[in-house]
Amino acid sequence: MTGAWGYIVRTSDGAVVLAGAGRLSSVRDALCAEMSACLHALSACSKQGMAKIRLESDCLNLVISMICLRLVFCFRMLECLFQ
Predict the structure, then answer these.
(1) What is the distance between the alpha carbons of residues 2 and 11, in angstroms, rounded to a whole number?
(2) Mean pLDDT of the region 3-21
(3) Which pLDDT band, with edges at 50, 70 and 90, does 81 fall under?
(4) How many CB atoms lie within 10 A of CB 4?
(5) pTM for this model (two decimals)
């Protein structure tokens, strides 16, 4: 299956500062396309030197996945600190 990704980066006031879109020649499902958009957006922000980023999405599955990944990362950091 093919698909596409897209993102918009805005300031805290809502002004658009970056945007991007592209095609996916092969994508497993909508969540993979959403993840691709997220990765492209984060990469673009990083290239512009942006460090303080708030990520928003209308894809609940992506949001839940990101929260779970953050929790796993935090727990692993705590495990390292208290070993």
Answers:
(1) 31
(2) 95
(3) low
(4) 12
(5) 0.77
- The number of residues making up the chain comes to 83
Q: Write the single-letter amino acid at 33.
A: A
What are the residue ranges spanned by the domains of the chain? 3-81
Q: Are 41 and 62 in contact (CB under 8 A)?
A: no
Per-position DSSP letters for the chain, written without gaps between them: --EEEEEEEE-TT--EEEEEEEEESS-SSHHHHHHHHHHHHHHHHHHTT--------S-HHHHHHHHHHHHHHHHHHHHHHT-
Is the pLDDT score of 83 beyond 60? no
Given this model, what pLDDT does residue 56 score?
A: 87
Name the β-bridge partners of 8: 19
Provide CB contacts within 8 A for 1, sequence distance 6+: 26, 27, 28, 29
Which of 45, 59, 43 lies closest to 10, judged by CA?
A: 45
